[in-house]
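Hi everyone, sorry if this is the wrong subforum. Our group has a chain we'd like a structural model of before ordering constructs, and none of us has done structure prediction before. Sequence below.
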Amino acid sequence: MKVKVDIDISPEEVRRLFGLPDLESFQRQILDDIRERMRAGVEGYDPLKLYEPYLKGTLASWDLFQRMLVRMVTPAATSKPGEGSDQTDA
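Answer:
Right subforum, don't worry. Here is the predicted structure as C-alpha cells:
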C-alpha cells in the first residue's frame, strides 16, 4: 500500500513547526554589515578579508576535514606489503 501526502506549507511555517529560530533579522544584520564593509573598502576590496571574520572557524573545519580524508587514504600506502590490499600484482 502506498500513501502519498502533499503538504503546501511556507518555509516560515516549517521553521515554526519544527521550533527553529527566526534568523531573518540576524541575516539582515550580517548582510547590512557586509554591504557597509564593501562600501567602505571599494578601492581596496578584498573578498577574502571581507568574509574572513565569518569564515575563520569554517576554514579551520575544512582543513581538519581534509587532513582526516588524507589520513583515511594513506594507511594503504603505509601498510606492509600484503596487508589490507586486495590488489594483485599484474
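For your construct planning: The two ends are 52 Å apart (CA to CA). Residues 4 and 14 are 19 Å apart (CA to CA).
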